[in-house]
């Protein structure tokens, strides 16, 4: 079969598939949701608001990625033909680069779809897989008023998004986008990546680890990008991009396959293949919390990097306002065992900074820890994360706080 006929057949089949999906897709999604809906909800751990709508959009994702693969294959074929006309001995390096570039473009397209990230789910689901899966679902949600929960793993430990969604039913839908180790600088990077997102409320949980830890955080390879370089320079940290995690972020921005390498390895080699370091780290942790606090306190500092974090948080607030979102900042804490070992000037410095943020931005709500449930050392599982009972208390408090909050009657992009 000639290439022209192949292209016509391919385009015809894709057009027919799109037509069938648009006409029969909603009915097929309803039928499948009736049979597999409960299993889907369990699989997503409550992240799917409407199973029928979810399935319909996965049909669209499949056709979108198939169409993308077809178009990229045509581009590759055309480029190969072009290379063949050039009289050179070794064409394979150029052809390899073409294939490599087209594969990365396809993976970039795939990364915009929840279907891809649902396929990346394994028994040991990576934090980035969960983050991307939930982030890409936001635009599909039919509930008009939505909120995102940002912060480190402390946000995940403090707030049960499922409990919030069950309590608010169809009045408000919350999506937790917490990522381990998130600092104030990372919050800014994430906010810039959430432009255009359909959510009028942003709730973030901050504590001392948001402002007084080094810039080199776990999430930088995932969230730092080329477009953040100028921002980094404006924050007074322009030379930092030569550090490993910043470079990994830039490289991942250019090569999606590199950014997704751990998730792809887990999918191909099996869950846990990339978590051996974390497993060994966890096993080496001392069970004696005071001893761990003594070792950990040296990581916290009020030095130059803390000032960069504060400037970044100020820009994060401005970014939320620019995107017409209502921002609620929850002033959090660490395990008192750790806090008592830190420099005593750190917590007052953080509280003073957050008060300044509130004074300079009347539209931003900064909720003092004095107004939130008390969390003594006894409710902590480690130096930063509370237990499930404390999480339930904090979540119920947040539900009541939001019920009596003006954001429930009108919020930004909603």
Question: How would you characterize the overall build of this protein?
Answer:
The chain is an alpha/beta fold. It folds into 2 domains: 3-119; 143-221 and 287-408, SGNH hydrolase (Rossmann fold, 3-Layer(aba) Sandwich). The chain is 59% helix and 6% strand. It has 20 helices and 5 strands. It has a 5-stranded parallel β-sheet with strand order 2-1-3-4-5. Helix 7 packs parallel to helix 20. It is globular, with a radius of gyration of 24 Å. Residues 276-284 have low confidence and may be disordered.
Produce the secondary structure layout.
Blueprint: H1 3-44, H2 51-84, H3 92-110, H4 114-119, H5 127-137, E1 146-151, H6 153-158, H7 161-168, E2 173-176, H8 184-193, E3 201-206, H9 208-211, H10 220-223, H11 229-234, H12 244-254, H13 256-259, H14 261-269, H15 276-284, H16 289-296, H17 304-322, E4 326-331, H18 336-339, H19 346-360, E5 365-367, H20 388-403
Parallel strand pairs: 1-2, 1-3, 3-4, 4-5
Helix pairs in contact: 1-2, 2-3, 7-20, 8-17
CATH architecture grouping of the largest domain: 3-Layer(aba) Sandwich
- H and E string: HHHHHEHHEHEHHHHHHHHHEHHEH
> Unreliable runs, pLDDT <50, ≥5 residues?
276-284
| Main sheet record | 5 strands, parallel
By DSSP (H or I, 4+ residues per run), the number of helices equals 20
The pLDDT mean sits at 89
As a percent range, the share of strand residues is 5-15%
User: What shape does the CA trace take?
Assistant: globular
Radius of gyration, Cα only, in angstroms? 24 Å
Give a count of the beta strands, DSSP E runs of length 2 or more: 5
* Cα end-to-end separation: 53 Å
What structural class do helix, strand and pairing data support? alpha/beta
CATH-assigned fold name of the largest domain: Rossmann fold
Question: Into how many domains do the coordinates divide?
Answer: 2
Q: How are the strands of the biggest sheet laid out side by side? A: 2-1-3-4-5
CATH superfamily caption of the largest domain: SGNH hydrolase
């Amino acid at each position: 079969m000639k290439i022209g006929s192949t292209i016509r057949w391919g385009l015809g089949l894709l057009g027919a598939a799109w037509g069938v999906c648009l006409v029969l897709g909603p009915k097929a999604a309803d039928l499948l949701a009736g049979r597999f809906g409960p299993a889907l909800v369990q699989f997503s751990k409550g992240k799917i608001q409407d199973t029928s709508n979810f399935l319909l959009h996965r049909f669209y994702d499949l056709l979108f990625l198939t169409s993308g693969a077809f178009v990229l294959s045509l581009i590759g074929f055309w480029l190969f033909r072009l290379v063949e006309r050039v009289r050179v001995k070794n064409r394979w390096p150029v052809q390899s680069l073409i294939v490599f570039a087209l594969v990365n473009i396809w993976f970039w397209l795939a990364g915009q779809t929840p279907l891809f990230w649902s396929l990346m789910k394994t028994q040991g689901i990576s934090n980035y897989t969960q983050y991307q899966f939930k982030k890409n679902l936001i635009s599909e949600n039919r509930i008009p008023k939505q909120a995102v929960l940002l912060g480190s793993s402390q946000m995940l430990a403090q707030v049960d998004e499922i409990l919030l969604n069950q309590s608010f039913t169809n009045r408000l839908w919350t999506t937790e986008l917490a990522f381990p180790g998130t600092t104030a600088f990372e919050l800014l990077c994430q906010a810039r990546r959430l432009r255009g997102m359909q959510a009028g409320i942003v709730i973030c949980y901050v504590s001392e680890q948001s402002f007084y830890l080094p810039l080199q955080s776990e999430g930088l390879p995932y969230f730092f990008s080329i477009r953040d370089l100028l921002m980094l320079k404006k924050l007074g940290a322009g030379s930092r991009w030569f550090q490993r995690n910043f470079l990994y972020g830039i490289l991942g921005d250019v090569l999606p396959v590199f950014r997704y390498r751990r998730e792809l390895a887990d999918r191909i080699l099996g869950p846990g293949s990339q978590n051996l370091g974390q497993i060994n780290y966890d096993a080496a942790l001392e069970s004696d919390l005071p001893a761990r606090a003594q070792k950990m306190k040296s990581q916290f500092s009020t030095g130059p990097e803390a000032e960069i974090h504060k400037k970044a948080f100020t820009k994060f607030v401005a970014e939320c306002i620019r995107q017409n979102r209502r921002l609620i900042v929850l002033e959090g804490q660490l395990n008192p065992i750790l806090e008592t070992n830190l420099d005593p000037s750190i917590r007052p410095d953080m509280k003073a900074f957050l008060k300044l943020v509130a004074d300079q931005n009347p539209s931003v709500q900064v909720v003092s820890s004095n107004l939130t449930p008390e969390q003594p050392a006894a409710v902590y599982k480690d130096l930063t994360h509370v237990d499930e009972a404390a999480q339930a208390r904090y979540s119920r408090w947040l539900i009541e706080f939001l019920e009596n909050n003006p954001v429930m009657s009108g919020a930004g992009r909603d």
